[in-house]
Input
Amino acid sequence: MIYKDILKRIKPSQNEKNRIKVIVDKIIKVIEEKAIKEDYEVKVQLTGSIAKDTWLSGSADIDIFITFPIDVNVEELKEKGLKLAYYCNEVLNGIATEKYASHPYLKISFEGYSIDIVPAYYIEKTSQMKSAVDRTTLHTKYIIKNLKNYQKDEVLLLKKFMKEVKVYGSEFKTGGFAGYLCELLILKYGSFENTLKESSNWTEETTINLENYNITKSFKDSLIFIDPTDKNRNVAASLTEEKLNEFIFASRNYMKNPKEAYFFPLEKRCQIEDILNQIKDRQTKIIFISFKIPDIPIDNIYPQLKKTSDSLKEKLEEIEFTIVKNSYWSDEKEIAILTLEFDTWTLGKYEKNVGPKIRYKKASEQFTSIHENVFLEDGFLIEKRERRFKTPEKFIYHVFKEDNIKILKIGKNIKDNIINGYKLFNINDNEILKNEMFLDYLDDYLHPSQHLKR
Amino acid sequence: MIYKDILKRIKPSQNEKNRIKVIVDKIIKVIEEKAIKEDYEVKVQLTGSIAKDTWLSGSADIDIFITFPIDVNVEELKEKGLKLAYYCNEVLNGIATEKYASHPYLKISFEGYSIDIVPAYYIEKTSQMKSAVDRTTLHTKYIIKNLKNYQKDEVLLLKKFMKEVKVYGSEFKTGGFAGYLCELLILKYGSFENTLKESSNWTEETTINLENYNITKSFKDSLIFIDPTDKNRNVAASLTEEKLNEFIFASRNYMKNPKEAYFFPLEKRCQIEDILNQIKDRQTKIIFISFKIPDIPIDNIYPQLKKTSDSLKEKLEEIEFTIVKNSYWSDEKEIAILTLEFDTWTLGKYEKNVGPKIRYKKASEQFTSIHENVFLEDGFLIEKRERRFKTPEKFIYHVFKEDNIKILKIGKNIKDNIINGYKLFNINDNEILKNEMFLDYLDDYLHPSQHLKR
Output
């Protein structure tokens, strides 16, 4: 495979680099000057993929750390740090949002760039760390020091491949590979292709220990990449089993038949008509349940949607409906939708309530004294009784009520919104098909693993 | 419970007894005189419930054994025995059918009575036995010697109760209690009620050893009643687990609420309309498969029907249909019908063919090289493929063909009749509802255990 053409398209141009440099230099200058003026003792550091020169064209996230000496107390750090960040935003005339990771930081939207200004401590080794964000500067330094110039292209190829097969990004929603992990994989395996090749051989207990540390801590994750800056930390801790498997599948598919297409977005059409036809073709029943999401970080909502969806599936299968697939989606602003797809969605009127073996005399006598319609089958006493929920909808109407919802394992932040205003609909009777993001989700739903193959 | 009135109805009247005695005396005289004339050395013996005075009014089966000395060879025994039997039938002017148990015997239908004339050896203890039928004379002698006069009524109550709850009769079709076993139970437990009471406490390893033999043989049956005439034989060997459980259930129901009704046929109406309504009410799908039965003893056909029915159920469940109940019926003359009742009888168009874990590299590569539409789910590779059989009917049409039927475990004697002329129908489109026996079967099908409760 020749990667020259691909790199041309994914590597930032000199122009793009220059523009970023101008912005970065300006931000650093503004903060440094303000700090001097206020008499704050800080070092302003560029971190992340721009500092490491491993960012993909068009997706430059600028990470600026305002680092304070470690003897500054945390309240002072927060106050002074945010003050400098807000001042910077004023000068830039950007749009600022306060965010939180270990402690508050500022996200500035400016000229199409996303700029994080993060107060942290200035540390030179992990033992000095006061909060998790402090470590970032060490990561940046480690990569700058160790990643050879020609390996940067390999990092870009790996990041872009991961991005397009949808396994890139360590935030909770994705559960994929962090940028730092990509860089470390290239340090370990030397090249993009070799990383893909080697990943195929990862067993379920792979440990990669670049610095040959003497490891004393035991990790439970399915891929363990010991952080070269901290032997007690697994860089891949937030990587889910699912994303790891997806990466392995995509890697094998790519190595068998390498194509440029893997480095660019999958061409999907998402025509409403196509999607409706495909759903019809499956001859199953799909139920959607929509409700408003609360105003909390989306990373907190996704696990709650998953938990609720899985619990609904479990309970519906207990009452003998067969679920082909369950899933969830959110526009990350207003609504979430749970999807339940059934192979079996109507059942006979009666069900068997299996009692004790007839030979267990006491239990049998108790069973027959409680129940009316008891017969004997294969040595067991069975009560013939009317099914309570003849359709999945009936169960959902029942369970989504204040008094009944406790039988589900449901996300605590979404519970009230579900009880107070869920809507149950199917593919034919809703506005939702006008939402392109939802269509995109349905397309992925109907074609699982489509991103992993080209 | 006062049994006087019941006994009055189930005990043979003096009149009935006299009539039987006349017939029995005549048969014995005819055979004895003929034997003398032919110079055969035989003893003619009345056996069975008439000899033991434990038969139910209206159901006298007359068992006459023509016993030969044990030094006569078996061919001679068969020839001379049948010759005497046929002669007897000639004199009676009855209708004779040759039957077989160990060796041939003659069943004569005469004036509404069924008379078995059975050639056997004259033996005085089990060790002399040459074939299984020889043992019958020993059983008769044992009961006559040990059963007290007042216990005969208890035997009648037990037999009639068992008959009406449908657990009486040791032929293969029923798999129930033999008459001899009933008599032994009364010898053991003293009375009808005590037998019912004690049966409730039978564990799954009950052994009853009336003569306190030193047992060396180990039996696998769930009720073991050592034959007082043969310590190596279990009288209850042919009693099925099912009939044993049914007897226990009926006994408990009776003891809780004793009623005369248990001694008389269950009142069923079997109105077509009722049955159709009850089937409709279940909201399931019932499929019937009818075919001609071959001209072999019905006891050989029933196990083949069961085997075929169970195998069909197993295969249909493998392809994800859900069966509530499967059953079979035969008119014992011309046809048999298999019944399959479904809770789930339509399924989505596609199914998941679950392949290896993605982490098993070799297996994964083989799987993806064979199959087209492969995706990843929970760490496994899955092929999405079209379901071959979308309805149970499609599977049945497929499997009941010469080349495909081998995937079923099917009765060997009914196989050809199924392949060459089965008919698949449902409750709405068949002549069969005109058959009262079939309606009776359907009534029992719809009300399992109805005979065990009153």
